[in-house]
Amino acid sequence: MEKQDYEKYQVCLKSSYMSKEGIVKPCLDLSDTNGKLYLAPKDDILKDHPELSHKSLMEMQIDHLAKKVNNQFDKILTEGLKRKGFEFERNAELVHFIKTRCRSEDYQKEGIKIFLVDDVPFMKWDYKNQEIKQEGNVFTATNGAYQYL
């Protein structure tokens, strides 16, 4: 979708919207592995309808990007634990393990964070080069560099 196309749409909270004529119509469905985004044409929607999001499309894109970055970090952290011999069947087990046996040391001056399990380092995160770039309506993010120890 081109930049000018994004400006023609409103974010919806559901998969359908109420048109100006009072007809329920399907929203445009933009899906990927991190979820769905529903859009309705601005010139056809019933204004102030409760199914419309109060967030702009740009805000929704930023939220979506943040979710993708967080999911990527979770996968990297889980892989670091796996390399040290810790694997988990359910996410709840992983969360409990991290809360009870893991910690981190943040070296802000150097822009580095060390992750430890039972006081043994297993991953280093060099976060000083984090950035989010925008080109038109496209956002890209880099979350620094990771090293398994």
Task: For the structure shown, list the relevant keywords.
149 residues; alpha+beta; four-stranded antiparallel sheet; 11 strands; 28% helix; 37% strand
Main β-sheet, in a few words?
A: 4 strands, antiparallel
Q: Strand order of the main beta sheet, please?
A: 6-7-8-11
Q: List the secondary-structure elements in sequence, H or E.
A: HEEEEEHHEEEEEE
Beta-strand residue fraction: 35-45%
Question: Would you tell me the structural class of the helices and strands?
Answer: alpha+beta
What is the overall pLDDT average?
Answer: 80
The share of residues in helices is 25-40%
Description of the molecule:
- This protein is an alpha+beta fold.
- It is 28% helix and 37% strand.
- It is built from 3 helices and 11 strands; from the N terminus they run αβββββααββββββ.
- The chain has a 4-stranded antiparallel sheet with strand order 6-7-8-11.
